[in-house]
Write a structure and sequence with these properties.
The complex is a heterodimer of chains A (211) and B (212). Chain A is mainly α. Chain A contains 8 helices and 1 strand, in the order H-H-H-H-H-H-H-H-E. With 212 residues, chain B is mainly α. Chain B has 10 helices and 1 strand. The chains are: A mainly alpha (211), B mainly alpha (212). At the A-B interface, helix 1, helix 2, helix 6, helix 8 and strand 1 of A face strand 1, helix 1, helix 2, helix 3 and helix 4 of B.
């Protein structure tokens, strides 16, 4: 059975032969700016941005007695007033949420997709590493809240487990949500019907062969 | 509406695309890798299809310069709409749908611009200014002296207030806002009045006014 192929599309297919060189077109520069030309550089940038995020987080609220500003210790003291078990969960969430929230402001959605598809292990591993570093460098025994403070009667170990759950769960949930949104295909886009896919008769032909 | 990605998943497609050398990839793989942010995939896709897009546009009657401009727009549009590409469908028809819609947009834009420049040329010719020949403007056929005489007659048929408006706008070249302030009219009403006045002058030039 012969299919009724759009004559314009037929001409388009026949217009064939690829261009030999890319040239220095402005469109190439504009599009490439959004994309990732060097995977190493974008991964490094992500690590740098995350490090800045963790520093900002420690400036906002001290964690495990590690605080950059006097203000951050004051905020931490206020956080410990929050009833159990929300205090450790919130502390951990705050620690990791800042770097996770910085990404969208500094990377394009294409760069984020690239990181999520190719460097997912980095995105998942950084909060783990940061939490380990903080636990290793922080002073975990100074929690006076366990001795007559707001958390009296609760185990510091349980506090630490909950804090770790908050510190790891928050970025993982945020990044998972981001991956879902960024890697989902738009079934319908408002700006053009063309994005729905071809409306060309006979266009459901075979997928293109490798060159 | 956002729908979940269909097979192949972006990650799987990207993994496959990075394993193969870029030149061996199918268009579908390249679009997937482009969607996942790979600049190399975009480069290969661009090099592979730029010529095709350009030649198709030329076959539709565009000059080489215009075809080049539209080709650039096509790839920018593809970049903007890459999220709408369904990896289970073939790439070329989807690409072509973007090429065709970009071309149609360009045609619409061009015709609007031509209509605007035509109206502008008519306006200028009514004021006895130079008009480029070959634009299809009726008034351009009149010589300078004839045009001035006809314009004076046509103006004399208009109410004094309308003549004053035309003078302020087209002779003194006052902005709409200041004329609106002076006359106490709104800017929209003023534009309407001027439009009607120009219509009356145009009708006089074409002879319709005389018949009426």
């Amino acid at each position: 059975m012969t299919r009724n192929v759009d004559p314009d599309f037929k001409t388009f297919v026949e217009c064939g032969a690829p261009a030999t060189s890319m040239g220095e077109d402005s469109v190439v520069r504009r599009v490439t700016r959004d994309l990732v030309a060097s995977p190493f550089r974008v991964a490094l940038a992500y690590v740098g941005v995350s490090a800045c995020g963790y520093v900002a987080s420690l400036a906002l609220c001290a964690q495990n007695d590690v605080g950059i500003l006097p203000f951050s210790h004051a905020v931490a003291a206020r956080m410990h007033v929050i009833p159990w078990p929300w205090c450790p969960l919130l502390c951990g969430a705050l620690f990791s949420a800042v770097p996770a929230l910085l990404g969208p402001f500094l990377f394009t959605r294409f760069q984020m997709r690239f990181l999520l598809t190719r460097f997912w292990w980095l995105i998942a591993g950084l909060p783990l590493l940061a939490s380990l570093v903080l636990v290793a460098t922080g002073n975990n025994d100074v929690h006076a809240w366990f001795e007559g403070g707001s958390h009296v009667g609760f185990s510091p170990n349980l506090w630490m487990i909950l804090w770790t759950a908050g510190a790891l769960g928050t970025p993982w949930i945020l990044e998972g949500l981001r991956a879902f949104l960024l890697l989902s295909r738009c079934a319908k886009r408002s700006e053009s019907g063309a994005a729905d896919g071809p409306q060309i008769e006979g266009a459901d032909g075979p997928r293109s062969e490798p060159r | 509406m956002v729908a979940l990605g269909v097979t192949p998943t972006p990650r799987a497609a990207y993994r496959r695309s990075t394993k193969e050398s870029a030149i061996e990839q199918t268009d579908e793989d390249l679009l997937n890798a482009w969607f996942c942010g790979d600049a190399k995939a975009f480069g290969v896709f661009y090099a592979r299809h730029r010529g095709r897009v350009f030649r198709w546009l030329v076959s539709k009657g565009l000059s080489s310069g215009d075809a080049d401009e539209v080709t650039q727009d096509v790839f920018l549009n593809l970049h903007a709409r890459i999220g709408g590409y369904d990896p289970s469908r073939p790439a070329l028809p989807w690409t072509f749908s973007v090429v065709r819609s970009t071309w149609l947009d360009w045609l619409r834009r061009e015709s609007r611009q031509k209509a605007r420049s035509h109206a502008w040329a008519s306006e200028r010719s009514l004021l006895g200014e130079d008009v480029e020949s070959g634009e299809g403007v009726l008034e351009a056929r009149l010589t300078g002296a004839e045009a001035t005489a006809t314009l004076e007659t046509a103006l004399s048929h208009l109410p004094a207030s309308t003549r004053s408006l035309l003078e302020r706008r087209f002779v003194a070249e006052a902005p709409y806002e200041s004329i609106a302030k002076e006359t106490g009219k709104s800017s929209v009403a003023l534009r309407k009045s001027l439009e009607r006045a120009l219509g009356a002058l145009r009708a006089h030039f074409t002879g319709k006014g005389k018949k009426a």
